[in-house]
Fold these 4 entries.
Entry 1:
Amino acid sequence: MNPAPIKLVFTGPVGSGKTTALHQLSEITPVVTEQAMTVGATVNKTTTTVALDYGEVTLENGEKVLLFGTPGQRYYDYMCKIVAQGATGIMLLLNNDNADPQNDLAYFTELFADHAKRGAMVLGITHTEGARNNPLQRYHAWLSDRGYMLPVFAVDARNRDDVILMVEALAASLEY
Amino acid sequence: MSTHNYYLHGWNENDANVLASFLYLIGDKLPLLGDRTLNPLDASIWLADLDSEEGREFWQEALDQPAAGRRASDAGHFKIALSRQPIATNHLLIRNPLRINGETGVLTVLRKMLDGIAEPNLASAFVTTGERRSLGSLFMQIAHKENVELIFPEQVWVLVDSKNEQCWANRHPRQWIRFFPQLMAIQPATEAVFQSLAVSSNPDCQAYPIDSIKWCLGLFLWKGEPSPQAAQQQTYQLKNWPNFTSLPHHPKHLSLTNHLVRHPRKIEELMEDTELSREFIQNFINACMAIDLLHATPSRALNDKRDKRIGYNPLRALLSRLGVTA
């Protein structure tokens, strides 16, 4: 019997950097499903994921780590839940510039509650440049109030070291 | 606890600032005030630096006074001697010397005295200070909102903009862990220094939270001993995960974090949990303390649903593949 595949899921709302972060890790050219945005396009973001992004890394023992990026629109929830089944960990990216990132946090921790409760989730907060007064504090406070002690980092999804740090934290969280 | 005044006999300004900075850090846990304008007779604690002429004279005079013939003004003063020289140099000056390393030792002796544990008069504490003076004074400079420049080899520098609670550097904090032990100089940073380095327009220069520099100080300053703040606690628990993207760190710091965010832990328990050395763990605790990440009174164990241990962790294999070794 083949062992269960090792899966990492990159999720979060539209414009949080999921596709970019997945690109930092994948050793194959990721399969992406980017389409031109019909609503909400900006100077910096003109396309959005409409199905799943996919990338992979082959380990030294030949096993493959499957990297999935979910679409950010909430009407794709069902797809996110299917992809997350059996996933080793969830990499949740949130855009600090969004109108209500705490609402995004609440939504995605609920969507992936099983992983959050097991500590199999790490948060990367993007677009914190220029933010004053510890921009991560509101995320920590929200999580702590609900009994979660998940890793939260200010990240730049274009920076490979930042994305690797998220994997490192996830690995540590899964160990006692 | 009531506040006590101390008077420094023969201390130079730098060492005085280091002591003041440590006392500032531990706040009301050791309420001591030093005032250069204070009349020595109004101070309840006298600290003599035996490396200075003034300090040696004071100490010799104090020792030469037979107990019965001591001046009335000596009564009630706690006296502590310290020196950076080997004990042998000053053995004639110190009775029953108690050797203590570092400024933390001074604070420990002071604390015991205030708690009434140690001999109240002519207590001999041999304290070594020295290489850590400049880093210690940096804490004080940050607290006083002074801007400073740290200079490292390979033209690496960090400008601490204390007023705006940020620092500028031409290397990412991830690399500071390599440079910090090689610190060459700390000097005041004037507006002209900021302009000459063109911090806001220099593409090699980035701004980072001031916690990055405080974290480094915590990590390196006490060299495996508890910082004055950390020494006040036996059990530690993190308030939340540190933002490691702007903090110099070792991969093992993430494992320590994972333990400390979920459970109150003693150093010994962490050593058992992680198989890391006491020194490594203590430095991490000191760094967390420096950026106020530790609960003052740890109590709560997180009620989560994690497995106690997992065997094979596929993410470790992934990290190895990505070039990260724990």
Entry 2:
Amino acid sequence: MAGTGRILLEAQDICVNYGAIAALSGFSLKLMEGEIVAVIGANGAGKSTFMNALMGMVKLAGGTILLDSYPLTGRTWKAVQGGLSLVPEGRRVFAPLTVEENLRIGAFTRKDAGDIQEDYDWVFSLFPRLKERLTQYAGTLSGGEQQMLAIARALMARPRVLLLDEPSLGLAPIVIRDIFKELRRINEQGVSILLVEQNAKQALLLSHRAYVLQTGRLLKEGNSRELLQDPDIRAAYLGQGA
Amino acid sequence: MNFTLSTLIQQIINGLSLGSVYALIAVGYSLVYSILLFSNFAHGGFLVVGGYACYFLLTQWGFNTAVSMAGALAASGLTAVLTERLAYKPIRERTSITLYLLIASMGVNIVIENLFVITVGGRIRALPQSTFPTGVFELGGGVTVSASDILSLVVAAIFLVLLQLFLTRTRWGLAIRAAACDLRTAGLMGVNVTFLIGLVFFVAGLLAAVGGIFLSVRYSLYPQLGSITTKAFIAAVIGGLGSLPGAVLGSLILGLAEMLTAGFVSSQMRDLVVYSLLVLILLVRPAGFFGRTASEKI
């Protein structure tokens, strides 16, 4: 599913400071409805900070975040109600809760019981293994299964934008491939996706457009296919010297 | 022999009754700890507010026992919420170092205690005789149970079961359990964390009030009554801080240990045994019985 040309999420000149250190200095990004957008960059470029800023988890020193051209208030639960749902870095499943409880808490903001049942079926069709492990504690799942659970949990909020912070982190290449395949399927079913990744190659292969972030500033943006061929990007982020 | 056996049974009953009151207090302690990871020493203050609210509703305004207890629970719950908003929230928003919260909670405890000293005075009070059943039942072999012991055991059990149902069967209960595991991520699920923390404090304050009322019945009511939470704190540590089943188990162990010591050794040795037990547990199992030791997969 490619973009429809309608802006769903827009970040304008986002600035975030940690004490005296500027983590983001005027970063802007647009996500069209139906699009997959990737933010790539090295460790410490400000990718996670950007995700946390979108979710209202860190205070903005400047800038605006618009969802459907309405500004978000900076309260996390309102961002979730508005349709943003983040799969946090390191998965962060609730280890002492069961898989089923993890999914149920994902649907916390929703009150439509009937549709929630539909969404259980939906996430089980994406990740059948979760259905087999429904009564198991999330902490006993493998890393890949935990990532699947974290994504499924975020989908239970029925988001308009699924945000993923380093979904490939710490996973085996074969598991990463599976997960990214499911992300494409999720997008084809109408969910716009914004992901930040250090694994630039996978992120560029999956996304329609991408932004390259370097020490809190935009370095480059463009069509993902073109960025994959860009000699600078290849040298700096894809480990293929020019 | 018969004497010893009846003493044993008698002290077990007394111990369970006392332990159940500790459990009400310890569970609130543990609940707050599980979410914010600090020991809330103002918990004793909440308990005192509950005790005095019940006393004055009964004696000054002449309400019946049920209404007075309900009023006391509400007063204590609101005190807890207010304490969180005024004393802890400003700290939480500035730093993640929980030591500051712990110090603030000690300060709040002193404030509450002394507010009662300067307003109603430090003298020891007793809840009116007619408030709670005073009968004593003979179980045979010289074993007796007082009605107030049975009442405190039953009421404590009811409240603990209600808490368990709330935590396992409701939407907000699930959110609290998720927040106990990872507060930040619970926020990412769309849980209004500020409201959740307020709710946890309200529940903790409410349970403290029930404990405070029964302690006032068992002993008496005075501004320093809250210091008994030290025992509940020890019970929570023995059970594993942050674990609710642990807090209940620890409380019952503590209640039994105290009463058996009182029955078979000497009443004065109670605290010695309690603290020895704490030291022993900390040496053998530093995380307590149900403490968090299992590491999570990152």
Entry 3:
Amino acid sequence: MNNKRSQIVSFSIIIILYAVLEILLKTGNLSSLFSSLLIPVCCYMAAAIGLNLNVGISGELNLGQAGFMSIGAFTGICVSGMLSGVISNGVIRLVTAMIVGMILAGVFGILIGIPTLKLSGDYLAIVTLAFGEIIKSLVTNLYLGMDSRGLHFSFVQNKVSLEPGGKMLLNGAMGATGTERIASFTAGVILVLICLAFVYNLMDSGSGRAIMAARDNRIAASSIGIDVTRTKMLAFVVSAGMAGAAGALYGLSFSTLEPRKFDFNLSIMILVYVVLGGLGNMTGTLIATMLLVTLPQMLRGLSDFRMLIYAIVLIAMMLITNNEKVKIFIEKMRLRRKEKGAGNGEN
Amino acid sequence: MSFLSYLINGLRLGSVYAIIALGYTMVYGIAKMLNFAHGDVIMVGAYTAFFAATAAGLPLIPAVLLAMAVCTVLGVAIERFAYKPLRSATSLSVLITAIGVSYLLQNAAQLLWTSNPRIFPSLFSNGAFELGGLSISYVTVITIVTCIVIMVCLMLFVNKTRTGSAMRACAEDQGAAALMGINVNRIISLTFAIGSGLAAIASVLLCSTYPTVTPTLGAMPGIKAFTAAVFGGIGSIPGAFLGGLLLGIIEILAGAYISTQLSDAIVFAVLIIVLLIRPSGLLGKKVREKV
């Protein structure tokens, strides 16, 4: 019951916000600063929902979500660039790019997951951290170009020579330049809704329960016949795929994108959204993402102090939510509400 | 340059990583937390030493001592105000708090000292030993010797003294240690103090290798040292030493013979391979989970 209610809440938050923002956007009442944030917020939300499945529901710390976003982003940009001559419709190209980005990120998820999901705890965290750094380093050194003869790529040094009329898709440390911006806010909202629906359905299914059982007690879960590695793999790959799709959308919303954008700090940022929103709580993740993306922008007036304040807010939130007195207070409130509910039920 | 001189450069960088990793590993062993703010303590140490040497004109030893004092106070204060209230919280909450502290230190440094890079003065004399055609600078020797001395002192301290055995007891079981009359909070503070003091020494050695001081100076060495600690088996002192040295050597050799741009990727790839073969690191103990 509770789960159903939180599903309705999170879907309605997204849909109402979408309607309001779309009206503001159409009537030109949204500042350019905020309208430029719309698509990135959707991408962060989708990546954070995926990460929450991985960290909250499956209980494995993943510090490499930005790596999967990076794979999705640059795959998406390349796919869109390659198809630009074939498919003129932006929407179809966007969807294709996002699907390919998702699949490739998922494949990398499987490759990383097979050996590492046998590790647990902090060791898995360090492997995902290392993976994120490796991806950043590899993309920074990758040069990819396309002309009528096909694709050309080189590594470390730019040795790609193209026929006249050919174009570079990836430029090493410069990343992708001159990308056609085919991403839209609507696509972002649809992506978030699909991710939400997927995760909620998964949580209600047998596989989802197996994932949670494996999180709560690995040994007990395997003793009743759950293949722990396989269930953890499912959560990990789905999470990677969501990050990939989000990355593709993100990449296609900027005309230039550098590989170093997807660094360790981005992985941490998404993890912060998940933890502050509450582990396993998707509605919380959505709200935390919205607040924390817009907070530094709202503090823009304070210019130099804004990141300092952001850091202090972060520490204060963690200290307050873990404070014994606050916990007891919340517990009391919950009990009181329950008693009231029970009283009403008797009448 | 010959293979040997690359190897020596690798040992020098590796020694710096090892000193930082020792701090990481001790804190992890006792408080069971990933202290992501450790890298930023290094940054504070570097700025302190920088101002001590340039503005106050102090020579090497007093500058290092001052940096150690500042970092120790900072480390203990961070533990007292940010981590201690979270003793009973989930490890993820502590991790996020550590990240918050890291952001706080970086941004405070940016406000106080701007993000313009400053050039660290050379505090060591510039000479070098000549050894059969191979020249080894004094700084290199000092760095490697410092690292070995620190490792040996820490091993003696942890294994031979009363406080050291209290530390080991806390690392194994805090509840049982408290019942034996050990003041767990004091031991944790002491661990943070030692780790931060080591970070200050590492900062001076690091800045003698890469002499630019910026507010984000500590981030990458912090991640690398953490990697080194995991590489050697987190929680183990000789493991952190070995992991740090190997990481430094791999980084320099990969940069010299394969590609400078890809050296970071190679370091992390080696880490992944090592963890796949030995999931608890090179010298880490495998802990059996009991039902």
Entry 4:
Amino acid sequence: MSKLIYLVPLFPLAGFLVNGLGRRFLSRSLVSLVGVGTVLASFLVSLLIFMEVRQPGFQAQVVHFFDFIKAGKVNIPFAFQVDQLSILFLLIITGVGTLIHLYSTAYMHEETPPHFARYFAFLNLFVFSMLLLVLGANYVIMFIGWEGVGLCSYLLIGYWFKNDAYNDAAKKAFVMNRIGDLGFLLAVFWMIARFGSTGFSEVFAQAPEATTAVITGITLLLFLGATGKSAQIPLFTWLPDAMAGPTPVSALIHAATMVTAGIYMVARSHVLFDLAPLTQNTIAVIGLATALIAATIALKQNDIKKVLAYSTVSQLGYMFLGLGVGAYTGAIFHVMTHAFFKALLFLGAGSVIHAMHHEQDIRNMGGLKKYMPVTHWTFLVGCLAIAGIPPFSGFFSKDEILMGAFMKSPVYYALGVAGALMTAFYMFRLYTLTFQGTFRGTEKQASHLHESPSAITIPLVVLAILSVIGGWVGIPEVFMPDAHRLEHFLAPVLSSGVIPGESEGHLSHAFELMLMGGTVLLILGVIIYAWRTFSRYEKSDVPATGLARILENKWYVDEIYEAIIGKPLRALGGFLNSVVEKSGIDGIVNGVGRGVQYAGRQFRLLQSGQVGSYILIMVVATVLFFIIQLFWKP
Amino acid sequence: MPVNYYIFLSVALFCIGIAGVLTRRNAIIIFMCIELMLNAVNILLVAFSKMHHLRALATDAATTVGTEAQLFVFFIMVVAAAEVTVGLAIIVMMYRNIHSVDINFLNRLKH
Amino acid sequence: MTITAILFWFLTVLALLGALMVVSSKNPVHSVLWLIVVFFALSGHYIMMNAQFLAIVNLIVYAGAIMVLFLFVIMLMNMNADSEPQKNQWLKLAGAIAGGALMLVLVAALKDTETRYRSLEGAEGNIGLIEQLGKVLFTDYVLPFEISSVLFLSAMVGAVVLGKKD
């Protein structure tokens, strides 16, 4: 079965080519069929392979296709890695991807056919790149996909390219990603120089022989790459701006593809990261800081998609916290559940935006639950899941990360719980402002409110079901012994990581239950508080002050970056332009011209036009040559 | 007489010719200096012809080595005669046009 | 000093003196006459080197035909007086120095040649006689000989065309 693995990325690539090349000829329904069908086919193939991989005793396979780069001692094959980790990601990407594609057919229906096809072509290319990233059996193939998702995010964020602000957001995403990609690329070069190979198995086999400094350097560079893709401090500001793209694209970026790339890469390279404690601590601290800062920003945002965007950044911070403390399974688990409920939330938000005719400000919403019941209920499920209420999926995965953090340090745990409380607060602020209370929009909008078509609601329902039951594959041992099936499934790949099942043995079950219970109670309290506060929300024009004002302006991060990076760079650019370019390089170029002209004028005097002087010069030169010949003995 | 006496005679004549070409401006005298240089080469050829002939005579009494060099001198004279014909015709033309044979007036190359 | 040595030095001095006078005389007619002296001296050298035919041809072609042509042209132009205005003495000096330097360099280059002491005396050969030269000229070198006749023809035509009043 794993021989069929090449079909998985091939289908979306074919879809991209068909839709991209035939965008002027294909009808809208045909485009939809190709776009959705190819991803669905990938999903089915992935499912087949998954059936084989989940057999006990399955050995990880490297499926070799051809030699990609062969230069000297370095041989980089084009090969795919088939094991539990990659197949899990394949299922998430193609599964959630299929739902998002299906949703897009309804959401993007107002576009003209060529743009509709362009949209689906980019979407398929996005899925293809992500699949390549996940499947690559070495860092170079992974890097191809890594660059591919960066490119596709640029293309899709700037999909409405007639809007300058959207183009700026796309450029911002691209540039931020490039900074991270540079780190990734340097890490790959370093690996080639140190290990002579970029294949996972070769690198991991040789890693213990390398010094800690080398491993720390490589892993820090890899992590820099991950901060770019997965929107961590300091490169997180592109993700909220990426809301410029169509909402399904946001869902795809936030849930199935792109941002999980960093998590996948770190989990895949966990052998290296285990050897570098310094990097692990860095990851944990940065993850935690990102989780908290993004959560605080999300508290005061009023754009429905911005709130979700910052919540994604925050949840990614949790995942990195999990990776940093060695709870790799927990991080992957959270990637999975997050893919379900974040896709659900984004698609729900898209449904709301669709109904509100592209109104995104939650202060102008409210009371939508009676107009769009399916969206309302599924959105509520998503909020409960992300807030971490049992038995919704988010509870299990977040709990596993927090337990891993507690093992490392209670401080991590405490801060993590604080972040979780903020998550619950802003999510229910969002939910309450949108669906509860009374409608605060215009009359015109009110008259148009309606439930979305089935192409939108079906993915919502499917994702809602997944958000509920998705966590049940990883029920901790406290509740049911030996029920953590995900952990057993991933054990062959992540075996050297800290396995929570074993480490939790250090905590007594009673203590663990107490922690969980306390957390859940706190979260419930926050939810009720938020609900009560915001169901009576009235619009007010009083400008925010103090901390709220800082939060509304996102800690002024963009302004700080502008001041410490943007302005000096522009100043340097101005300096280079005015001084180096104008007087330096232009000076040299013009100087050469002037020099030649001057020399020409001077040498012209030699040309007297008299044959006699020419002969004289000739004779003198002849004499010189004779002298050189006579006296210069080599 | 050793052969390099003739070589030096030839060099001296040639360089006098060169100096003449460089110092004089009268086209006809320059022309004569060129003839001088041609003759310097001629005498060199004849001297080498004699030298090789003597060397070959030591082994073969009926040798004809060295004939070619003298034939070359002959051809040089032929070419020189032709050259003089055309060259003097050109000088006459030049005199007819600018009423001088001073080559300093022939500086059209400058413009 | 043998008679050949005396003859050699006499002819050599005569040739060099003649050459210097050609270059330095102010009157072009004198130059032509000195050039004829040089040609006579060189013909003497040819005879000393058993190149009798060349000596005679040299006298007939150069000293006779070509020099008469020169004289004819000079007189046609009425240039018996010195018509050369001396403008730049420095250029003249530079030309003399350049010629001298070339001579120095050539002498320096050639003074140590392998053949420098090879004598040219004795053993009169017969290669310089018209019989031997004619044999070679009309067998091995007949093609260049015929080509040179074409050259003459073209030179003649060229001279006529150039000299034509138009």
